[in-house]
Amino acid sequence: MQYLEKIGSNAKKAFEELKTVKHNRIKLVLENYNTAILKNKEKIIRENLKDVKSVKRKHLVDRLLLNEKRIDSIRDSINDCAIYSRLLYFSNSTNRKLILNSTNN
User: Fold this and answer.
1) What is the pLDDT of residues 5-19, one digit of tens each?
2) Rounded CA separation 97/11 (Å)
3) Which of 2, 7, 9, 75 makes the best surface tag, with the fewest CB within 10 Å?
4) What is the pTM of this model?
């Protein structure tokens, strides 16, 4: 249980630190990450196949297998994170109450 509590504590600390990072910096990092995934998509798939072949728990293979569709889904999630980082940035601004009220509607 201490392990999970440590993970939770670290996640909370990371969240608090992330709130101080400017949106433009977060967006740039996410865009670079997304571009790197796109640029290296074939290599990622190739290396993933090597990993999947060495899996000892064969029932997990489907969950581990990466293909173009799954990589595109990962990239879409990264784009979503860029949007959420904008909301996070604004929620810490002086307009916090206004934004929270408008997102709760």
Assistant:
1) 999 999 999 888 877
2) 24
3) 2
4) 0.64
